[in-house]
Amino acid sequence: MSRQVPEDGIQLPLMEEFYTIQGEGYHTGKAAYFIRLGGCDVGCHWCDVKESWDASIHPLTSVDTIVQHADQHPAKTVVVTGGEPLIYNLDPLTKSLQERGIRTFMETSGAYPLSGQWDWICLSPKKFKAPRKDVLEAAGELKVIVFNKSDFQWAEEHAAQVSPNCKLYLQPEWSKAAEMTPLIIDYVMNNPKWEISLQTHKYLNIP
User: Fold this and answer.
1) Which of 39, 49, 51, 76 has the maximal Cβ count within 10 Å?
2) pTM for this structure?
């Protein structure tokens, strides 16, 4: 998957790019330009963008082109997501974005070595491939997707590994929201270091 992409990071497999409202986590409600890279081997069965998994079906696109597109929008904030973006060398992408005064945010499972310079990292660890220590320590927010009751203990295990200033979020998996949300509400009330994250863009029908 990653072998098809130049290691210098000047081209990346671009699945899609779009300007929208961030729907989840710490930056919910803010305008941002999303860059979704293709390629992921973490393999969450409930993933809602499985078409992102195969990097080979997404065109290699130059960083210059990606940054030009991002710079055309009023909000000077980019969210790099996937797939799993840390499969690739993201140093050239973040350097070019920041040179244009664009803030760099990332959403990652943390399963690969950290690259790029980031203003904010949202770490959403997955059970299928453990997050690395360097990403755990750099995360600004830990966002745990709650699919079943055992995920609360799993969330606590990862909360113990991030920095003391890291924001902690529990988010119901969309297909289980009706079942899990009441449990999350109770959990946060009893463990107020956590906050609730919802996929507000889905409730508001924002693409």
Assistant:
1) 39
2) 0.91
Binding-site residue numbers for S-adenosyl-L-methionine are 46-48, 83, 124-126
Q: At what angle do helices 91-99 and 63-70 cross, to 10 degrees?
A: 40
Report the C-alpha gap between 9 and 153 in whole angstroms: 37
The model's pLDDT over 14-55, given as tens digits with 9 standing for 90+, comes to 999 999 999 999 999 999 999 999 988 876 665 666 666 687
CATH of domain 2-203: 3.20.20.70
Which pLDDT tens digit goes with each residue over 167-189? 999 999 988 889 999 999 999 99
Which residues does the annotation place in the binding site for [4Fe-4S] cluster? 40, 44, 47
